[in-house]
């Protein structure tokens, strides 16, 4: 029997389904994809608690819950966001009457317990002499809640929790990151998309003296200039079409803490000028405002581009580059740290088990060998998606076998068991080169032009290496599990 009705408001179908799966065992779950649908549900159903995503089309979660408080004050309101601190949580939590703020990725058991407590609070409010119609936390209470949450985040993202091979290249990277954490200096992290740059940035923040202050994130490549300025610097009501109220920018929310600017290389020259001024003057001026505000924020930025090359070609401002690049760091791609792959895979599987309520015990040895052999162009993000898919495809809580791997990994053939390791450095380098060429040819379905472009070689140079390593008779993209081919496109 259910103990109440909970309304989930989220515009992403997968998020709706994940939340419903966790909550439906104990509660009647009602779904809405936007504010309009949510209002229709609230008008027709008795709801004890609302779980609302912060980012929705047309209106933020906090703004909608502020409206709900005025029209339907009874349900206990909760907000979910991908930020460590919601954009408006500090200024708007009291106005919206938000009971709990939940950060992504959320833990299923903690989420369920939070909703249980919220529904219990709803019934207490209804009892004669109960706790009252509204939960109104004081600023002191709010600060204690936020401080406790940051302490939990600090434990979650400490350096020791970054999974890596103790003998792999991440050891040097983490040593540099620990050095950077000890000093209030701007950090620029370079590396391929999906390699884990945000995770490293969080470790630097939570390992620093600012670790008890906010950590906020913005993907600078995802928004046009006007919206990016509003997100970062804030805006006044009426500053542009669609600015219906004052908005606090992420720089102001991060005051005292750290802001992580991902994909900084995707910003326009016009925006770069404005960001440079903020970094030089240590102050922001919201769009439409007449006065500037001082800020104290550490900046960690990241890019998958070669910014030095962009500077030379005039695509990125030199002065901004030197502002951001005070402490440069490079995060190796997953193919450069293959010893990390089994460890990361096990960590991801534990996370997926918790999210999907499964008990898959691990991977078959052959599966791990194939995971290590694959090229992983999408890095850790692609590995995460692959493991999620394998768990969904598996019918029993047994080790994940190679038959569950996706079709794109069919060419990831491991070295034969018992094969002797190359003895000399030259042999080892040639073995790595041969393997990289074979994998790339397989991923490009034998197309020499595409493979040469990906490897940074000429067609003539690649053909010479194919002949040198005798790959024509070994690599066949059409053969099962990556036996090698002699039918390359010429």
TrEMBL record:
GO terms for biological process: phosphorelay signal transduction system; regulation of DNA-templated transcription. Keywords: Activator, ATP-binding, DNA-binding, Nucleotide-binding, Phosphoprotein, Transcription, Transcription regulation, Two-component regulatory system. Residues 5-119 form the Response regulatory domain. The keyword Ribonucleoprotein does not apply. Residues 163-392 form the Sigma-54 factor interaction domain. The keyword Transcription regulation applies. SUPFAM superfamilies: CheY-like, Homeodomain-like, P-loop containing nucleoside triphosphate hydrolases. GO terms for molecular function: ATP binding; sequence-specific DNA binding. It comes from the Bacteria. InterPro entries: AAA+_ATPase, AAA_lid_NorR, CheY-like_superfamily, Homeodomain-like_sf, HTH_Fis, P-loop_NTPase, Sig_transdc_resp-reg_receiver, Sigma_54_int. PANTHER family: PTS-DEPENDENT DIHYDROXYACETONE KINASE OPERON REGULATORY PROTEIN-RELATED, TRANSCRIPTIONAL REGULATORY PROTEIN. This is Two component, sigma54 specific, transcriptional regulator, Fis family. The lineage of its organism: Bacteria, Pseudomonadati, Pseudomonadota, Alphaproteobacteria, Hyphomicrobiales.
């Amino acid at each position: 029997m259910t103990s109440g009705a909970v309304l989930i408001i989220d515009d992403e179908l997968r998020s709706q389904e994940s939340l419903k799966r966790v909550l439906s065992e104990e509660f009647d779950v009602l779904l809405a994809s936007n504010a309009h649908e949510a209002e229709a549900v609230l008008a027709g159903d008795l709801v004890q608690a609302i779980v609302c995503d912060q980012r929705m089309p047309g209106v933020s979660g906090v703004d909608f819950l502020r409206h709900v408080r005025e029209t339907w004050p009874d349900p206990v309101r909760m907000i979910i966001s991908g930020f460590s601190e919601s954009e408006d949580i500090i200024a708007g939590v009291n106005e919206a009457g938000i009971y709990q703020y939940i950060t992504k990725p959320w833990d299923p058991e903690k989420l369920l317990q939070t909703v249980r407590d919220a529904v219990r609070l709803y019934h207490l409010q209804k009892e004669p002499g109960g706790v009252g119609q509204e939960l109104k936390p004081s600023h002191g209470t709010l600060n204690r809640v936020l401080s406790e949450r940051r302490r939990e985040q600090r434990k979650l993202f400490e350096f020791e929790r970054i999974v890596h091979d103790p003998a792999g290249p991440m050891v040097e990277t983490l040593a540099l990151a620990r050095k950077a954490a000890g000093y209030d200096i701007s950090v620029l992290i370079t590396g391929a998309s999906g390699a884990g740059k945000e995770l490293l940035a969080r470790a630097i923040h939570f390992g620093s003296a600012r670790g008890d202050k906010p950590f906020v994130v913005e993907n600078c490549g995802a928004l046009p200039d006007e919206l990016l300025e509003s997100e970062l610097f804030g805006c006044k009501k009426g500053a542009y079409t669609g600015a219906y109220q004052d908005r606090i920018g992420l720089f102001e929310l991060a005051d005292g803490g750290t802001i992580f600017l991902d994909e900084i290389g995707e910003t326009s020259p016009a925006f770069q000028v404005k960001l440079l001024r903020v970094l030089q003057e240590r102050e922001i001026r919201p769009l439409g405002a007449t006065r500037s505000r001082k800020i104290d924020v550490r900046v960690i930025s990241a890019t998958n581009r070669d910014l030095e090359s962009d500077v030379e070609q005039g695509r990125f401002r030199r002065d901004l580059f030197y502002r951001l690049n005070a402490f440069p760091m490079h995060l190796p791609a997953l193919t450069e740290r293959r010893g990390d792959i089994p460890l990361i895979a096990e960590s991801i599987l534990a996370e997926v088990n918790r999210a999907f309520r499964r008990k898959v015990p691990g991977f078959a040895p052959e599966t791990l060998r194939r995971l290590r052999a694959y090229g992983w162009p999408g890095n850790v993000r692609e590995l995460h998606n692959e493991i999620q898919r394998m768990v969904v495809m598996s019918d029993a809580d047994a080790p994940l076998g190679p038959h569950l791997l996706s079709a794109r990994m069919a060419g990831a053939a491991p070295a034969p068991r018992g094969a002797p390791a190359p003895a000399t450095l030259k042999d080892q380098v040639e073995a790595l080169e041969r393997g990289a060429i074979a994998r790339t040819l397989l991923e490009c379905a034998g197309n020499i032009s595409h493979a040469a472009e990906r490897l940074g070689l000429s067609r003539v140079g690649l053909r010479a290496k194919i002949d040198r390593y005798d790959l024509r008779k070994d690599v066949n993209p059409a053969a099962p599990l990556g036996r090698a081919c002699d039918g390359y496109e010429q």
